[in-house]
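Input set for joint prediction.
Command: fold jointly, output tokens.
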Amino acid sequence: GAGVSQSPRYKVAKRGQDVALRCDPISGHVSLFWYQQALGQGPEFLTYFQNEAQLDKSGLPSDRFFAERPEGSVSTLKIQRTQQEDSAVYLCASSWGQLLNQPQHFGDGTRLSIL
Amino acid sequence: AQTVTQSQPEMSVQEAETVTLSCTYDTSESDYYLFWYKQPPSRQMILVIRQEAYKQQNATENRFSVNFQKAAKSFSLKISDSQLGDAAMYFCAYESNFGNEKLTFGTGTRLTIIP
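tokens >
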């Protein structure tokens, strides 16, 4: 597609449920990022993929958060046993990679609400 | 670790006037990128302007320009001839040229345009 696509746009879950958020990056983009944006805050880095390799997961807040990109294109962010503090907008971004010196392109995000 | 500070939670400007948004950052690195992103209510992060630290010339994009003061670690955004469509949250962001491309964001400035 023309841009980064994220689904669902909104997700409501009960505390303790597992959720999965999907990101379709721009075709051909090597780098993919997940960010978490709490209400009234700037986005915070969660994890980074270069193709299918997860090279940095230092921002994942707990072992309940898991991300994958098995074929180097679509990525899924999974949150297990959700907690209220997981409520946030989750943004995905992709780019051609650092060597090409191109900026990241962002999706519209998924707003996750945990009841 | 790098930090980005936006000290103006909210700003307002009359339509057609000029406004300046402030950003300071802290880093020990000499080579990096700085960005201003715009986030309307649709949530998508839209790149406004990018500055490469090794370039002394301030970046400009139509009505948007920056004042990059490397020694002072300051990176302000000037919007000229403000338009109603400029109303949004504006985030300043830092990207190291070492390691991966992850962005470190400030907390944002909400810009209101007064008709």
